[in-house]
Amino acid sequence: MTRVESLEAPLVVGAGVAGLSVALGLERAVVITSKEMGSTWWAQGGIAAAVSADDSPGAHAADTVAVAGGLAVEDAVAALTGGGPEAIARLIEMGAQFDRDDDGALVLSREGGHHARRVVHADGDATGAEVMRALNAAVDTADTVEMLEGRVVDLARHDDRVVGVVTADGKKRVVYTAPAVIMATGGAGRMYSHTTNPSGVTGEGIMMAGRAGARLADLEFVQFHPTALNAGKDPMPLLTEALRGEGAKLVDAAGRRFMDRYHPMAELAPRDIVARAIFWQYDRGSSAYLDGRSIVNFHERFPTVTAHALSVGLDPSEDLLPVSPAAHYYMGGIDADPSGRTSVPGLWAVGECSSTGVHGANRLASNSLLEGLVFGAKVAHDVDSTPRPAPIGPVEVPGDSLDLPVLSGPVIEDLRQVMWDRVGLIRTGSGLWEARNSLVDMEPILGRTIAGRNAVNLGLLMTMAALRRSESRGGHYRADYPEEDPKQAMRALVVPGATPAERVR
To answer: 101, 155, 204, 461: least CB-packed within 10 angstroms?
Structure first.
């Protein structure tokens, strides 16, 4: 049984930093979200913004472009960094409490790839939680935002336009139509067996858009955070980059530093370089630890990291912390401009599920929360400025999304392991073909559920994108093509195509 309900306001899918930023900027909005907690809550790192007198949005933009592997869309970067100071001011006006010194000035940290202290933090390493507290408080007092709970499983169309979403509750389906749909569904870190991302972050929103005919971009570019706590947990606890900014060193079991062999900036090198260096430590039979024992008042300054370490019997002020890279952020996603417009009318995308080119092939540290804040406001303005469509006729929904069970079974763990082993930090042509063949073999089983279908199809798209890029660039490293190829200095776009649809009214 499928029910259709019409909404008068734009519909935002997702309630993280990007989704709530859009909702609060719209004249009226409906936000639909599942019970699962998104990645924003877990974000330890801060928000990069040029808020000090000796910094500038231009300098911030230069650092962003420098780590992006030659693929940054510079107009998008300028929009991002130019909107940083206003985004911080807006959060403070909402009541966000950022760390300040004794004189009341914002405490600014430096992280990998930055040449200035420009990263704003809350409670040392709990910035995401504080941002979400402030945004949720603003939503609670806003009479312009309605919250709905539901699991979105697909998009509804009319002709060539997205006109709503399909939600599932067991076997029941509800189609919500709306004048605009804004996807803010997050990334795809759970595609990998080693990840800092919570459950549910499997790129489902990206695949929904692709099934509706939206163009996708940069699917080969995954950012692996260098320092996740290697203690057998899933997701792996993040050890924030701010630790290295405050003097923590990467060492082997004997306490010897190794990053100076890989990059002049050592521990503060771009994330892809640090992550591969740690990977190679393990590959050669060594190990990698984060040594933060020199950081004064560690427990007070980094309470989240302290709690993670203590939970596995380690004291970061006294012990070395074993670290490993882990899938953390996805530069690929739904192709969109800084205003969130996609290639499909009626559909916008913002935050990690989008790919605006602002990160290029490799994201600069602490630009992700900033992206949700700055581009969220831009998306809201664009949606409100776009004329509402005429009343729609019959709504079309892919038939399998009306019939299939939602959740995948244990075989999804096999997919995650294949992605980590073959489509992870170090890739080769032969390994990628093995991944492709393994995923094709899994498809008949995974395709029996909506979550499994989305995961295997996204995995195949990511794998084939990595095969086509026969070079190394940013977060994409091919051991068989270890150098950048100037001829491949372009973004890769793909249109997966919509599946057959059924009319539901």
So the answer is: 101
